Amino acid sequence: MIKAVIFDMDGLLIDSEPFWRKAEQEAFSEVDIMLTDADCRETMGYRLNEVVELWYARHPWKGKTMEEVEERILSLVSKYILAEGKPMPGVTEVLAECQRRKLKIAIASSSPMSLIISVVKVLQMEGAFHALHSAQYEAFGKPHPAVFIATTKQLDVLPHQCLVLEDSFHGVVAALAAKMPVIAVPDSEMISDKRFNAATLTIKSLIDFDWNRLPKEITF
């Protein structure tokens, strides 16, 4: 029986994936790496340091350290979120139903904790979550399950008692590796990606979350 719901953040709670793409493209262009939207989608769900390390390994640059590029991206994303951040459709309703059902609620994200806290404030959701956890504190990021397993410990529940909501394939893999049922909510340009068939259920939007029509693996 499900006792807790763990939410990814970027692209699921807040429409921030376009901000990440914009920030990555701008920051990497400053070291002469021109990323396409497809390039950015390749690393959805990764920790920021892993994104920077990947592109440095493929296209080593000079003039800035990897840490400086990370800081530049995070600064830009934070600026865009504070100025334009808004919740994804259906978020408010799903959170309200979780609270009505007295489920524990958490965020488990690849984003740094500073950004998680900023997003919660921007969305005016302070106090809505029982736990906030960032993969920055784990040895490995998604698709490794560490961030989800650590979050279950904060919630004091077992992995199989948690439902995960994720928008990235790497997040889906992480949830499944943690032995948790997972509902995938890919963005519109990824919904046809057959890799999401691995999820317990795939929906187009949180608006489509139907508590009365869930797979048998998800019971409350």
TrEMBL record:
<dbReference type="Pfam" id="PF13419">
    <property type="entry name" value="HAD_2"/>
</dbReference>
<dbReference type="InterPro" id="IPR023198">
    <property type="entry name" value="PGP-like_dom2"/>
</dbReference>
<protein>
    <submittedName>
        <fullName>Hexitol phosphatase HxpB</fullName>
    </submittedName>
</protein>
<dbReference type="InterPro" id="IPR041492">
    <property type="entry name" value="HAD_2"/>
</dbReference>
<dbReference type="InterPro" id="IPR006439">
    <property type="entry name" value="HAD-SF_hydro_IA"/>
</dbReference>
<dbReference type="InterPro" id="IPR036412">
    <property type="entry name" value="HAD-like_sf"/>
</dbReference>
<dbReference type="InterPro" id="IPR023214">
    <property type="entry name" value="HAD_sf"/>
</dbReference>
